[in-house]
């Protein structure tokens, strides 16, 4: 009931101010400033549209330009109100109405810019929309408490709900400041990481693996610095947190052992350059090419379009076949059997012709065909060809050449034998 009476008295005082001649003059001033701000906003948007075409390759500059479009109206209106307030104050008029609109415009600019920053920093998701609502409600709530006059008392109450950790006074207000500082520094770190990634991607002197390594190191370092800066911003002494270091070490040793093992293994893969983005690898029954090296896992895409997330530790401790480690050339063997009634030299010539005609088969090393063995059912021949693009598939090359061999054998009456067995019946 006390809150309702306070709000009623506040609104009554505002209404009394608005209905006077001086209040009406101030309201007219606010409307005039709004009209000027509207035209200023339109002119500013046109200017930014022309300038954005000249800054296509600078993501951070584009972010600032588009962000300025969001807050151009409230900030220009606030500037006009400040000038009008100074003029009215010089002639001795009351400026209470103008003082009411000043925090409202500041809060509107803050809400629009923060929401725009969040949308640019993180992928769209229901959680992001929920946080946008929480942030807007929080900012407008602070403005409302300021207008009512309760903000100092609320801040004092939050600061009184506290406990001491060493020499540090840790309160609810400190926790809120800490969360806000972490969010701000994390967003700044995210933008710096994206800037580093974009610059590294455009550089012709940085390899793919080095680019991934720079991204990982920058993420770890910048996020760590963001936490340190946030703690220092709210006045938390880092030495007071040393009492928790033992517990954190035990937690890492037991609960987070696999996570840190994969994390360190990721750096080992980057530094020894044994696996790089674009490499064609086989691990166990998995065959595919490396799409990305992440902090905890490697993304491998197989021929079916399925992306498999393989932990980094598995690539360190298991046997991995890298088809493109030092040379992208890969040899494919195609075994074929022919009947003992057929001419092996003719069959080998036809097989060589089929291998040489395939567009993906290399001329150097040359295609060769070997007679390997005189088997039970027929003569074993083997065609050996080389390709340089294993990421485009090996099975399709094998299939095309086998099909061509089949057609040539049919056209030249060369027989691929069935398994044969001679059975003798012994009579007593």
What is this structure's SSE topology?
Layout: H1 2-18, H2 21-52, H3 59-90, H4 96-121, H5 126-148, H6 151-160, E1 162-165, E2 168-171, H7 172-202, H8 208-233, H9 245-254, H10 257-272, E3 280-283, E4 286-293, E5 297-301, E6 307-311, H11 312-317, E7 321-322, E8 330-338, H12 344-356, E9 368-374, E10 379-387, H13 395-411
Antiparallel strand pairs: 1-2, 3-4, 3-7, 4-5, 5-6, 8-10, 9-10
Helix pairs in contact: 2-3, 2-4, 3-4, 4-5, 7-8, 12-13
What keyword list fits this structure?
single chain, 428 residues, alpha+beta, SH3 type barrels, 4 domains, five-stranded antiparallel β-sheet, 13 helices, 61% helix, elongated
Concise synopsis of the structure shown:
Helix content is 61%, strand content 13%.
Report the C-alpha radius of gyration, rounded. 36 Å
Given the structure, what is the number of helices?
13
For the biggest β-sheet, the strand order reads 6-5-4-3-7
- Poorly predicted runs are none
Distance between the termini: 117 Å
Order of helices and strands: HHHHHHEEHHHHEEEEHEEHEEH
Shape: elongated
Class derived from helix and strand content: alpha+beta
Estimate nothing, just give the exact number of structural domains. Answer: 4
Mean pLDDT: 76
Helix content: 55-70%
- Largest sheet: number of strands, sense, barrel closure: 5 strands, antiparallel
Note the beta-strand portion.
5-15%
Report the count of strand segments.
Answer: 10
Notes on the protein architecture:
The protein has helices at 2-18, 21-52, 59-90, 96-121, 126-148, 151-160, 172-202, 208-233, 245-254, 257-272, 312-317, 344-356, 395-411, and strands at 162-165, 168-171, 280-283, 286-293, 297-301, 307-311, 321-322, 330-338, 368-374, 379-387. With 428 residues, the protein is of the alpha+beta class. The chain has 4 domains: 2-149, no CATH class; 173-255, no CATH class; 261-322, SH3 type barrels (Roll), CATH 2.30.30.60; 330-411, Alpha-Beta Plaits (2-Layer Sandwich), CATH 3.30.70. The mean pLDDT is 76.
